[in-house]
Design brief:
Number of helices: 9
Oligomer: single chain
Low-confidence stretches: none
Bound molecules: nicotinamide-adenine-dinucleotide
Strand order of the largest sheet: 1-11-8-7-5-6
Largest sheet: 6 strands, parallel
Number of strands: 11
Order of helices and strands: EHEHEHEHHHEHEHEEEEEH
Helix content: 40-55%
Strand content: 15-25%
Radius of gyration: 19 Å
């Protein structure tokens, strides 16, 4: 079974991102700038934000954090965000999810203008993705497509099954697979025949957020698996995905590990999206 190594691919991609970041700096006289917004004090979110800022620094992208107190009102958030988005020296903005009430994920994402929407999750950005007219594409779905392409996993005419219909992963990745000419089935918690669909698939993308949902017995021989799920196991604290790993190598042709598969590709696409949006604005679009 081939390991679809997202960590290794993200390191290869970092070389190109470094060159682009350098070229941007040369032409613009400053680094491309990603503003990462953290609302509240969730320790896991704080770690994710810190890691994103460090990843930016590693390729020469400037990244700063804006922190909002837990309980920030919609009015206060919107007014502060308007200032951030109108700052000429900020090229892209990412709001770390989840956000605490009274803010909601959907509301927050829709405050972002598509020209600065680093994770492309506003309704306008998602509509552009649906129309095949994206400026940038949502990071996790795009990372999955980049990984499949890098490892030359054929998609045209293949049956791809996506398990999960969130706006962050399931729906946009299904759309991107359609754009790669795959025949796509989207399964969700109300689907009656998810296991049968998965068993018939050439490529399976699992983004259900349910550890152990599938195992080696559920896949067709020679299929490719993209496991998007991330869970911390007890008691050892190790990370695992939505799929049980034991025995997969006897059935599958290729699979992403957890960790080291989709996660690093998500970050890599965030860095690329920041550069794409920065370059776009520099060219006056
Ligand atoms: P979500 O909870 O928003 O959506 C889960 C989806 O799975 C829902 O559409 C639901 O209908 C479906 N589902 C749940 N149980 C099911 C079942 N038994 N059969 C079929 N469908 C089922 O989750 P999400 O935000 O899309 O994230 C999914 C997983 O991916 C989580 O574990 C999350 O942590 C992980 N994730 C990883 C990355 C990454 O970069 N690696 C990025 C985003 C999300």
């Amino acid at each position: 079974m081939k390991i679809l190594d997202g960590k290794a691919l993200s390191l290869i991609r970092a070389e190109n991102l470094r060159l682009r970041a350098k070229e941007f700096h040369k032409q613009k006289g400053r680094s491309a700038h990603l503003k990462v917004i953290l609302v509240g004090k969730d320790p896991a979110s704080a770690v994710y934000v810190k890691n994103k800022i460090l990843a930016c620094q590693s390729v020469g992208i400037h990244s700063t954090q804006a922190t909002f107190a837990e309980g920030t009102s919609k009015e206060a958030f919107a007014s502060e965000l308007m200032q951030i988005q109108s700052d000429e020296n900020i090229d892209a903005v990412l709001v770390q999810l989840p956000v605490p009430p009274p803010l909601t994920e959907e509301w927050v994402q829709n405050q972002l203008h598509p020209s600065k929407d680093a994770d492309a999750l506003s309704f306008e950005s998602l509509g552009r993705l649906m129309a095949g007219r994206s400026w940038v594409k949502s990071c996790t779905p795009q990372g999955i497509i980049e990984l499949l392409k890098h490892y030359q996993i054929a998609l045209a005419g293949k049956h791809c099954v996506v398990v999960g219909r969130s706006l962050i992963v399931g729906k946009p990745v299904a759309q991107l697979l359609v754009q790669e000419n795959a025949t796509v089935t989207l399964c969700h918690s109300q689907s009656r025949d998810t296991k049968a669909q998965v068993k018939s698939a050439d490529v399976v993308v699992v983004a259900a957020g349910k550890p152990g949902l599938f195992g080696s017995e559920d896949f067709k021989t020679g299929a490719t698996l993209i496991d998007v799920g991330i869970h911390r196991q007890t008691p050892d604290g190790k990370l695992c995905g939505d799929v049980r790993w034991d025995g997969l190598d006897k059935v599958l042709a290729a699979a992403t590990p957890v960790p080291g598969g989709v996660g690093p590709m998500t970050i890599s696409c965030l860095l690329e999206n920041t550069l794409i949006l920065a370059e776009r604005r520099m060219k006056g679009f």
